[in-house]
């Protein structure tokens, strides 16, 4: 069955080509091609996945060679696909969630005049993302890597008539490009170290050749990390993600929550050998994750646009994944990736449905009272929110996040500080999630309802809601149940988490985490539902209002970057628009012209001047003769 | 084969005939070129030292001048590119040129003939002759069929290239006499001069003569300023030929003459050449961002991309050279496409000012899509040819000089910035003009489709091109290694002799 692997990325590509070339397809055909291609690849993925798990290849990985990209003096990257348990998880999440989102979009975007263009871009995106995770060669991965960047640009700026959307799209592309460039330099170094960019060979070579803490490993790991934080919107390259919400909601769900932004997580997990060779960088990964999850969580607390809350929460949740990667809890990170993909896609899709029925109103303060008016959306949204807030025992998010909290403390590379940051993060997460629910669904209704969504929107929501609740049960902590289906699978590729010696009981930590989460929920409920006046009172004071401004603007990163980079660049370029080198040449021409004018003055045609000239010349020559 | 070559040249020298004849004749020649390529694709290029065609007639025997054309993988690929873009440039001037058609096509074909000649000539005198053949018709093309400021631009173009061309003529003559004095056999033939023994100081001056001619043509910072003017004033076909082909004669010259004739002297200035290459990459990209004239913008991106060629050619390794070759081709395709695009927008909107454009995607999704493809190609998106070229150059350069390669890599970010700005200003954003414009016509679709296919092909499977030029590249590599091996002692000698050489030149 596994020889069908090539079909998984090819189907969306074919879908893209059909949609891009056939400009005059009917809407039904467009939907059929767009949704069908991705659904088919999801189906094939499931078949291959079942086959892979029940009947794993002896080496733990299946590789399919398609053709040699080019071969120039020893540099011969191959177009070949590589399926192991890590890429299997990613491929499964990508195709499955994408298929649901495509189904949702086929109704959500039906009114849009560029229906075919939308599905073409979406299919191209799925293709690039699949190439990214299936590539066996880093250069091919780079193709997918840049491809998702392009699709992200196209989809953020999908409604191109509005200037802001275009700017947001450019910002996303350029900021991620900065990370990509660093990554490209990393690839150069890797090539000169190992004469290849074939990933298994690289990992093999790195584990043989490099010492732990070798400077070269550190450099490479840092450069790859720069690529990862660009795509995964971590500090300090996170500023593009909140603006990326300018795209249609299904795009936010697919790209900016479920799949693309986790590319950095994938890269680090994939190149884990190199990161293990550089303890400094790996620790840095954890610290970046911890700081990001706190800063982004605080920002989420202050937003009023429902999609921006979700955007900041995405940044914060990916921060958790980075934290897990940094402490060496590889499988915990990937587990959280999967659960997060389910509930974040769900939240964005449900939020999209809410916004649509509220006549494109994004402001949560203008919503409210939707609980009874759109119960299905409410309950599914609640399921996702529970998972995000990690409600103990009943949500999938609890199991994945609890694992990260536990490893942040107990893993060999974990520290109390990291654990504390993650814990505070959990409190904040619970708080902003509750705030979002209360503002959107409870209280009085402020905006009249539009028409309610139909089947193709609700079915994906229900499926994702079920998954957000139950998907956690495939991996339970050892003190209740100890189910390890997921980590068993992933640990065929990734190393097991090494623990510190003599750690305390896990139960106490679970209890703390649960209490913290619940108290976050209660606190918010108390402030927003019970005592609605308290927020306004706080805002009128100096310190909280400054804090609010700071958080609302995303810690002024945009302002700082504008002042530091954007403005100077624009000023310099506008000053030098006419190219000062050219001015030099122009000056040369002018000088010649002036000289010409002066000299031609001497040709006046007047005999007196000529005689005068001759006499003057003779005198000068004679004087010179005498003097010398 | 010799007859084929004759037909090749005579086919182009058909003066005063309108567009159909021009198109037919160039198509015939293009067909011939392709036949040669296909028939040789299966053969090994290593036979006969890599030269697949050799055609020699005595021209002026008294001075050792012969009409000597030869073709190896390198020139074959360049000729194919020339003819391909030649066909497209005729197609894209189909409706644009309304007055004095006969003379226009005469000039266009003469330019193409000159360029093909430059790529094939292996007699230095003949090479110089073709070098001039392509220059003068181009001057006329800009001067007669250009836009408002055409006279200034054509003068500027002419003076820059002619002045540097004269330096090359001096260098050619210098080489001729030095070699003649040493061997007693006065000849302009490339193969005779290839093995000439020249004192290092003389070699240095001669090399500079050649190099300046080629870098002005390329053009490299700080000699680039003729390019934006010439491009923005030239008719569309002129811009296409200029960017796609004429700039490449500079690159070709460096690969064909500068490095093989003077390997040691080149090795000495390699770091300097790489440095100006990198400056060009960054400087061109920054300036491209600031432009408001669509054609000027694309012209500055050319400056940036030519910086990559400079960087790669002087990186002294095989990988970078392969990249340079691919860059020559892919840049020809992508920039050619962007200029054709700018031309067709100008036909529709009567302006090149991107501030007056915007929201064109709504009316013309076809133009928008091609614009997107080629803007992305020019910022090096993987899957399109330019990516492989730039990646290989950077990878090669990384081996030669890490800091310069890293700075050059930053060019990738800058190229993204200007490409996106181009897209945003022209195709996206709100509509500024309520007039609706027509999408591509069938003729334009054919042009663009062939360019798109070519750029994707080079991006996904460039192996045939790499195979074709392989033998030429490995020969070049030998020159490199010979230069690197004896570089050390020569550098020391150089310093001792330097004052003396200045004296000699003073006289």
UniProtKB/TrEMBL annotation, chain A:
Q: Which Pfam families match?
A: Proton_antipo_M, Proton_antipo_N
Please list every transmembrane segment annotated in the UniProt record, as residue ranges: 6-25, 32-53, 79-103, 115-134, 140-160, 172-192, 212-230, 251-269, 281-302, 309-327, 333-355, 376-399, 419-442, 454-474, 507-529, 607-627
Q: What is this protein called?
A: NADH dehydrogenase subunit L
GO cellular component, as recorded: endomembrane system; membrane
The record's subcellular location field reads:
Endomembrane system; Membrane
The record, for Gene3D superfamilies, names:
1.20.5.2700
Q: How does it sit in the membrane?
A: Multi-pass membrane protein
Q: Name one GO biological process term.
A: electron transport coupled proton transport
Q: Which UniProt keywords apply?
A: Membrane, Transmembrane, Transmembrane helix
Name the Gene Ontology molecular function terms of this record: NADH dehydrogenase (ubiquinone) activity; NADH dehydrogenase activity
Which parts of the sequence belong to the NADH:quinone oxidoreductase/Mrp antiporter transmembrane domain?
135-429
Using the UniProt record, give the first listed, main subcellular location. Answer: membrane
Residues covered by the NADH-Ubiquinone oxidoreductase (complex I) chain 5 N-terminal domain: 69-119
TrEMBL record, chain B:
Tell me where on the tree of life, at the top rank, the source sits.
Bacteria
Q: Subcellular localization, per the record? A: Endomembrane system; Membrane
Q: Which UniProt keywords apply?
A: Membrane, Transmembrane, Transmembrane helix
Q: How does it sit in the membrane?
A: Multi-pass membrane protein
Question: Does Membrane show up as a keyword for this record?
Answer: yes
Zinc: present as a keyword of the record? no
List membrane-spanning regions.
Answer: 21-45, 65-91, 103-121, 127-145, 157-178, 205-227, 239-263, 269-290, 297-316, 328-345, 366-388, 400-420, 440-461
Please name the GO terms that the record assigns under molecular function: NADH dehydrogenase (ubiquinone) activity; NADH dehydrogenase activity; ubiquinone binding
Q: Which GO terms describe its cellular component?
A: endomembrane system; membrane
UniProt record similarity statement: Belongs to the complex I subunit 4 family.
GO biological processes: ATP synthesis coupled electron transport; electron transport coupled proton transport
Ranges for domain NADH:quinone oxidoreductase/Mrp antiporter transmembrane come to: 121-414
Protein name (Swiss-Prot/TrEMBL): NADH dehydrogenase subunit M
């Amino acid at each position: 069955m596994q020889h069908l692997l090539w079909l998984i990325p090819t189907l969306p590509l074919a879908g893209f080509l059909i949609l891009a070339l056939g400009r005059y397809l009917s809407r039904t055909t467009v939907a059929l091609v767009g949704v069908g291609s991705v659904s088919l690849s999801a189906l094939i993925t499931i078949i291959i996945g079942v086959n892979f798990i029940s009947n794993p290849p002896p080496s733990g990985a299946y590789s399919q060679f398609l053709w040699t990209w080019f071969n120039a003096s020893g540099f011969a990257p191959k177009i070949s696909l590589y399926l192991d348990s890590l890429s299997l998880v990613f491929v499964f999440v990508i195709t499955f969630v994408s298929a649901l989102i495509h189904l949702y979009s086929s109704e959500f975007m039906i009114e849009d005049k560029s229906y075919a263009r939308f599905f073409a871009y979406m299919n191209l995106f799925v293709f690039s993302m699949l190439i990214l995770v299936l590539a066996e060669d880093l250069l091919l991965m780079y193709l997918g890597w840049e491809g998702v960047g392009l699709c992200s640009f196209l989809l953020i700026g999908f409604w191109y008539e509005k200037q802001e959307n275009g700017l947001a799209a450019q910002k996303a592309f350029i900021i991620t490009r900065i990370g990509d460039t660093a990554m490209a330099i990393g690839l150069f170094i890797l090539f000169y170290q190992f004469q290849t960019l074939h990933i298994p060979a690289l990992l093999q070579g790195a584990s043989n050749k490099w010492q732990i803490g070798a400077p070269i490993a550190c450099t490479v790991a840092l450069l790859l990390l720069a690529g990862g934080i660009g795509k995964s919107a971590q500090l300090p390259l996170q500023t593009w993600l909140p603006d990326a919400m300018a795209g249609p909601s299904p795009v936010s769900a697919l790209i900016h929550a479920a799949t693309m932004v986790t590319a950095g997580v994938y890269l680090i997990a994939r190149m884990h050998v190199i990161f293990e060779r550089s303890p400094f960088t790996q620790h840095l990964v954890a610290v970046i994750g911890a700081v990001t999850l706190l800063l982004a969580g605080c920002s989420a607390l202050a937003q009023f646009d429902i999609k921006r809350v979700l955007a900041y929460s995405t940044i914060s949740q990916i921060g958790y994944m980075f934290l897990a990667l940094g402490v060496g809890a590889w499988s915990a990170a990937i587990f959280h990736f999967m659960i997060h993909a389910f509930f974040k896609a769900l939240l964005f899709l449900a939020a999209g449905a809410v916004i649509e029925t509220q006549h494109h109103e994004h402001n949560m303060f203008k919503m409210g009272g939707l609980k009874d008016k759109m119960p299905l959306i409410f309950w599914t949204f609640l399921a996702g929110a529970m998972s995000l807030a990690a409600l103990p025992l009943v949500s999938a998010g609890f199991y994945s996040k609890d694992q990260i909290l536990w490893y942040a403390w107990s893993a060999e590379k974990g520290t109390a500080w990291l654990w504390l940051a993650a814990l505070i993060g959990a409190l904040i997460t619970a708080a902003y999630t509750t705030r979002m629910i209360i503002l959107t669904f409870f209280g009085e209704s402020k905006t009249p309802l539009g028409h309610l969504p139909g089947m193709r929107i609700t079915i994906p929501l229900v499926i994702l809601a079920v998954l957000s609740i139950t998907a956690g049960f495939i991996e339970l902590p050892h003190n209740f149940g100890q189910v390890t289906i997921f980590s068993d699978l992933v640990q065929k590729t990734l190393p097991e988490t090494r623990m510190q010696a003599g750690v305390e009981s896990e139960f106490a930590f679970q209890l703390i985490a649960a209490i913290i989460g619940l108290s976050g929920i209660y606190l918010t409920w108390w402030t927003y539902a019970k005592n609605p006046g308290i927020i306004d009172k706080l805002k009128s004071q100096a310190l909280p209002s400054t804090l609010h401004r700071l958080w609302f603007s995303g810690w002024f990163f945009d302002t700082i970057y504008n002042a530091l980079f954007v403005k100077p660049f624009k000023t310099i370029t506008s000053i030098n628009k006419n190219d000062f080198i050219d001015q030099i040449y122009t000056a040369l021409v002018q000088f010649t012209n002036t000289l010409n004018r002066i000299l031609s003055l001497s040709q006046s045609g007047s005999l007196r001047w000529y005689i005068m000239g001759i006499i003057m010349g003779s005198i000068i020559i004679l004087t010179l003769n005498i003097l010398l | 084969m010799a007859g084929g070559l004759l037909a090749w040249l005579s086919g182009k020298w058909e003066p005063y005939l309108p567009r159909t004849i021009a198109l037919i004749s160039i198509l015939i020649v293009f067909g011939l070129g392709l036949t040669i390529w296909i028939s040789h694709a299966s053969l090994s290029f290593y036979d006969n030292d890599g030269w697949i065609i050799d055609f020699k007639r005595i021209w002026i025997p008294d001075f050792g001048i012969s009409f000597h054309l030869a073709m190896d993988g390198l020139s074959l690929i360049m000729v194919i590119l020339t003819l391909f873009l030649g066909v497209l440039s005729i197609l894209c001037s189909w409706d644009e040129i309304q007055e004095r058609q006969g003379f226009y096509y005469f000039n266009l074909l003469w330019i193409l003939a000159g360029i093909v000649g430059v790529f094939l000539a292996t007699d230095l005198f003949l090479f110089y002759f073709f070098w001039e053949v392509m220059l003068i018709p181009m001057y006329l093309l800009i001067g007669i069929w250009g836009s408002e400021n055409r006279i200034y631009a054509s003068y500027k173009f002419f003076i820059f290239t002619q002045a540097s061309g004269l330096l090359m003529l001096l260098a050619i003559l210098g080489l001729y006499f030095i070699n003649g004095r040493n061997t007693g056999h006065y000849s302009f033939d490339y193969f005779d001069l290839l093995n000439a023994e020249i004192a290092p100081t003389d070699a240095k001056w001669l090399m500079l003569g050649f190099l300046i001619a080629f870098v002005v043509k390329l053009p490299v910072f700080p000699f680039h300023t003729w390019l934006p003017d010439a491009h923005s004033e030239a008719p569309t076909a002129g811009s296409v030929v200029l960017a796609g082909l004429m700039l490449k004669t500079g690159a070709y010259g460096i690969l064909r003459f500068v490095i093989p004739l003077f390997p040691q002297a080149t090795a000495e200035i390699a770091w300097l050449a790489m440095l100006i290459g990198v400056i060009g990459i960054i400087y061109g990209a920054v300036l491209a961002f600031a432009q408001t004239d669509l054609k000027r913008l694309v012209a500055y991106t050319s400056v940036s991309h030519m910086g990559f060629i400079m960087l790669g050619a002087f990186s002294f390794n095989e990988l970078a050279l392969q990249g340079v070759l691919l860059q020559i081709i892919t840049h020809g395709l992508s920039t050619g496409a962007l200029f054709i695009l700018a031309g067709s927008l100008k036909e529709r909107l009567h302006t090149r000012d991107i501030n007056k454009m915007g929201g064109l995607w709504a009316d013309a999704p076809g133009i928008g899509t091609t614009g997107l493809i080629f803007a992305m190609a020019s910022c090096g998106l993987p899957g399109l040819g330019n990516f492989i070229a730039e990646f290989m150059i950077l990878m090669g350069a990384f081996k030669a000089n890490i800091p310069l390669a890293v700075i050059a890599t930053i060019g990738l970010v800058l190229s993204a910035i200007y490409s996106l700005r181009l897209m945003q200003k022209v195709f996206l954003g709100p509509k500024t003009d309520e007039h609706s414009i027509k999408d591509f016509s069938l003729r334009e679709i054919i042009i663009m489709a062939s360019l798109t296919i070519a750029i994707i092909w080079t991006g996904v499977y460039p192996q045939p091109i790499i195979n074709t030029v392989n033998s030429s590249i490995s020969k070049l590599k030998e020159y490199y290694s010979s230069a690197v091996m004896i570089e050390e002692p020569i550098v020391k000698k150089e310093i001792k002799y330097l004052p003396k050489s200045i004296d000699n030149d003073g006289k």
